[in-house]
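All the exercises in this workshop are built on plain-text protein records. A record pairs a protein's sequence with a compact description of its fold. The structure tokens are whole numbers drawn from a learned vocabulary of backbone shapes. Once this layout is familiar, the rest of the handout is easier to follow. An example says more than a description, so a record of this kind follows.
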Amino acid sequence: MNALRVWSKTDEVRMWLICLPPGGGDARLFRDWAGRLPEGLGVAALELPGRGVRKGEPWADGAEAAVGEFADAVEPLLERPVLLFGHSMGAVLALDLAHELRARHGREPLALIAAASELSRPRTPTIRPEASDGDLVRWLRDLGGTPEELLTSAEFLAELLPVLRADLGVAADRNPGARAPLTCPVHVYLGEQDPMVDGLAAQRDWAAQTTREQPPRSFPGGHFFVQETAGPVLAALAEDADAAVGGRLLRSR
């Protein structure tokens, strides 16, 4: 099944915001953004197999295969300007997708927005896909953002933990090698109380990925500030999208 979910009516879209969720997440995290962003900014989202409407599909066969599938899926949207937004692990895959689009088509997205992502060294110990269920639950508790009643629900964990393990396996498989930095702007969004990401390190990491570093933005909240403070995040996204096209394509609702 196609990895792409389109949440906006295509006849209204002047440019696309393609979203990549954090580990364990799916495209539904971005479903309501279409009604909350400026007119003309279409919202679409990518999801790995094994969750959402792709539940039951085999897990992704590594990072390279996942990014290749994503590049295939977004092909129909490339007739219009494209921005990439990634949250946590999704930001890392968005970076790889930007490079894949450049390799295939000779052009990059207009901008990349990396939220809650530090490329080099997370503050919390790196969790491996082979970690025990208990260790994964403790890691999720340390990250915050997941209600305690869900972390103690056997039904919820039976659904989430296999997806999370698969995503951690994709992240662990990633080995991009040396490549020239992007020439599009890269925006870094940070949670002020994020226990996993050091803001200065994240800014440094992402600055090395582009020739057009942008000032970072900080928001109240932890690692899942994108959901916790969605209003300010969406306002920033609208501003950065509008700046990417010089204010030509977007108009307020």
Observations:
- The mean pLDDT is 92.
- The longest helix spans residues 154-173.
- Residues 49 and 59 are 6 Å apart (CA to CA).
- The radius of gyration is 17 Å.
